[in-house]
Amino acid sequence: MELGYSNGLRPGYERASPYDVWVEGRYSGFDDDAASLGRDGHVGVLYVGGDYRVAENMMVGALVQFDWSKDASDVLQSSVDGNGGMAGPYLSMRAAPPPGTASAPPATPATRCRGPSTCL
Question: What pTM did the predictor assign?
Answer without folding.
Answer: 0.60
